[in-house]
Amino acid sequence: EVQLQASGGGLVQAGGSLRLSCGASGFPRGDYAIAWFHQAPGKERKGVACITSGGGKALWGDAVEGRNAIHNDNAKNTVTLQMTSLRPEDTGIYYCAATTRRLCAPDVTRFEYWGQGTLVTVSS
Question: How far is CA 11 from the centre of its chain?
Fold first, then answer.
């Protein structure tokens, strides 16, 4: 059974940084992609970044500004999302999601497995 555990959220001032971690277990051997989605209060989940088993990466939305970076630590079965220059609009729950296909897409329906989310609050 695939399980995802998101952690690393917290309260940070605008301009600060956070590193979120997604611990993954139970993956079958083969291709996969793991992504981070952001859900602001009262809004839909939006894709932030994604990485595949082949090392391909995708950044979506504001992440393309260079404020976010995604990294896969295969030895630790962990995918991290480094967020810098945080803004109040980055506040929300960050979910990690996974699919057994080697395909990144900013679409929640493309991911079969979801972690419980970690809350990020950015104060102004």
Answer: 17
pLDDT digits (tens, 9 = 90+) for 89-121: 999 999 999 999 999 999 999 999 999 999 999
Report long-range pairs for 57-63 (Cβ below 8 Å, ≥24 apart): 57/104, 58/104, 58/106, 60/106, 61/106, 62/90
pLDDT at 29: 80
Q: Report the alpha-carbon distance of residue 42 to residue 47 in Å, rounded.
A: 16
Residues 53-84 pLDDT 10s = 988 999 998 766 788 999 998 877 899 999 99
Q: Which of 111, 90, 108, 103 is nearest to 44 (CA)?
A: 108
Beta strands 68-73; 78-83: pairing state: antiparallel
Residues 6+ apart with CB under 8 A from 28: 100
